[in-house]
What does this fold into?
Amino acid sequence: MKFLIKNFVYVLIIFLIISGVFALLFNPFEEKTEISLSKLVEEINQEKIENITIAGSEISILFRDGTEAESRKESESSLTESLITLGVDLEKLKAIEIKAELEGGVWIWLTPVLMFGLPVLIFVFFFFMIFRQAKAGAGQAFSFTKTKARLFGAEGHPKEKISFKDVAGLKEAKEELEEIVDFLKNPKKYLKMGARIPRGVLLVGPAGCGKTLLARATAGESSVPFFSVSGSEFVEMFVGVGSSRVRDLFSTAKKAGTSIIFIDELDAIGRHRGAGIGGGHDEREQTLNQILVEMDGFERNTSVIVIAASVTGDTPVLIKKDKECKLLPISEVIDSYYQKREEGVEKISPDLKVLGFEKKIGKRSSEDNLYFSNSAFKKVRSVFRHKVNEIYEIEYPGGKVKATGNHSVFVRTAKGLETKAVSELRPGDILVNLPYKVNRTTNKKEIRAHKFNAEFNLELSVWQPLFEKFEALDFAYQYALAHTGEISQTQLGKMLGFSQRTIGKWQQKICDPRFLSRNYYQHQDILPENIKVTPDLMRLFGYYVAEGYARKEVDFCFNRNEKEKIEDVKNLMKKIFNLEPSRIRFITPGAVNIIYYCKPLANFFGYYCGKGAKNKHIPYFLFEAPFKYFKEFFKGHCGGDGYIDKKGRGEITSVSKRLILELNWLFRMHGFKSYIRSFRTKEGRRIHNGKPLKESTAWRLGFGRTQNPLTSEDSRISGSVYRTIIKKIKKIPYKGYVYDFCGCDNEAFFGGESPILLHNTNRPDILDPALLRPGRFDRKVVLDMPDINGREDVLKIHCKRKPLASDVSLREIAERTPGFSGADIANIVNEAAILAAKRNKTQIYQQELLESIEKVLLGPERKSHILSVKEKEIAAFHEAGHALVSTSLSENEPIRKISIIARGMAAGYTLKMPIEERRINTKREFLAEMATLLGGYCAERLKFKEITTGASNDLKRASALARKLVKEYGMSALGPISFGEKEELVFLGREISEQRNYSEKIAFKIDKEVEKFVKAAEKEALKILSKKKVLLEKIAQALITKETIEREEFERLIETGKANKTKLPCLKIKMKEVR
It folds into this structure.
């Protein structure tokens, strides 16, 4: 940007100079009035002329009143002769002063010089700028190996100096670092004692606790240069770039003398070498090695302190999200989590699953050996994308896949499955694909594929696809009904964009919105509300995908000789939808069209199978349906677009690539081998003497005799399923994003046109032990979340330059924010300032700060989330149940606030405020917390005699709490034993993986103990609520009326109901809110 502005200024200056010169050349003097010689004679005779100047043929005239004029004479004759000829008075002419000058003056020679010399000068200047820029660009081309560290402190940004006073709390951490500050300020007294300065300090703590701020404060207190750089800036695809940047960084720091290097997010390059992720000697490990060399290679007088894979977007993957399965390019899946041009940031994806695999448990399986059992949908912790400049293309029978060199894939070996970096793959390596055939040369042949749900049971709404596009109208309609009598019809009309008359008709049940009324459509009394997914429906879907289309009607087109299929479609439509054909047409020679004029049904078929030949696809639920459903779908589709020869070999052709890819994946998930071919149709071809058609691409799915799913006998095992052997692998240039799933179960997912098993990036945050030994990172400073005093200090710092009202109590805010980091508290203050400005206030009041706590903790209020009267009552009793059980158990903390106003993902919430901050919890506290979590569930059962989905999150948390109580804390009848081994690095606070180290028998006992604890908590909650049913009703009614109850009002309700505290034999895990 800097160079761009500079160049723009140069161009502007050149333009102004050229414009000025040309303006001067073509108009050097102010323009004068030109008069004729006859007019000049007239003016002379009237004695108006002062003097006349002659320059060649040019005549300059000065009048007595000071004005000037010009005239011209013939160059051959003199002016006097011309004037006499025109009748000038000679006496008056003699009284006028007449002067003669050389013609042109300075412009005679200056004009040609400028006309020819100026362009030359401009060209010289232009080429000078070009060569100057080229020279700078050449220098920049080699500067990418230079460090990108920002310099703060001495010569960097002196105005941004930060001291320990600017860091609130963290007393112990500051004391540790003050020793280093003192060493840097007064090195002599330490050197006399033979002490050496620590080479490295590792700051460890949760996000937002102030690690970066503390590092900068250390540099500020020491008054030494502070070099700040992110660990990710050392990561480059070019070999040696990261190492070169490390060398340049340390070299720059040494030249600055005593200095501090701060490497943020050190784990980006410092994880355990040889971890098996991304291969062996990759660029990251070379960078890490260089850091170790630099830290070891410091001379004694050097005072420098250090503070501490993917596939291309077109790779198809099978995901499950919102209960729907879709085969999509991985870019379509992951791009939705990112903003435009955002990359290099891991995004959490709790709602996403991808097709991975289950490990086979058997005699040969062990920790060192991994075997494939079947494919299955697995959770994805997070997604990731970034840009690269080159990738590897792996070619294998059935397709190609492109991945970065440090990405891993699974390969088959004699010892089971192993991961191998793409850069280390060689032709002949065997990839893991579907179907997975084992024991090919023995009598125990086995094909392992996907395990489908044998209890598959699904119903589809016939009308839902039609009404889905009118969601906004439906919301307005439901909103108007819900607020009958509460808001005037005129006001509702203005809010929703409808007339008062329309709102009135809706509320009086005179009519429904036309587009939401089934009376607007034909067959409203014939079509069923829901239909069950059956093999017959799937065969009908197959016919539609092959030979049908949907607009306002559903049309099936068959050859007239395919009488069995025609009758089958008619019978299926009658059996499933109660419809007879509206019309049968014989327009196209040899073809018959069976037409059903039914818009709801057209939307139904289009919704589940697509509209238009190029947009056809399989129904999403077919990826989870057992084989008989797939077989019938394929039977219908193959009957329309397929061909099977006498030997049983078949092919299916379609212009929809998505459909062919989905069928290929389904074939393989069911254990059948298929292949894909593409071809181009010729331009100008005609069908039945119709219009000439354009050139297009079509795809063909083929399968062999033994791989035909329509045969009565299963011949898959006898057929030859060739292994997926790599044919070729090559490195190619690439510009764009690459994508990865992180933290998949079993660290794998299937991808590719013909699916192969890829190894996901688990991104474990483990630092290499070599970084942690003495002489490198000598000190580990752990930063905890601030306590109540620390939070108050942080609030004071962030409120310094903000106008606070007199009613603001920072101590109360600190009391209400246990478990908040410094960054969270800064966010609270900022949100309060925004809220105050939004309300046009000149100061920030306590109310804004209190509201901001809830916004940061739970999310913004969802005012559009409007509950019906029944839902509001359920939510009120649910939250009242939480609050009443919590306040009835002495081990629990007091209630701060109860609300049924939706915030974030919670429909309601109950906030608790601890009297004191605890770091150790007892069994009683844990059980009290579990009873509180189940309070809402039990209150719903007690009041409404039924269970709703509102308690799902509570049940999940209570179950997890009970399992920790048994497996981690040794508080069950199984005794003081920890079950499950975890590989972790304690000071990093990150758990890496968990391995099961107990038998099935013990697992059964653990489940029983978990069940015992949950049942006991449920029993206690029911007991309390049954005993205090009147008080429960009272609290719930107060919530329904006011929607929010603060601590004081809640305590008044409790006092009037005399809710006695109950003691309980009982997990309390820092849960400050119950949603």
Remarks:
- The mean pLDDT is 75.
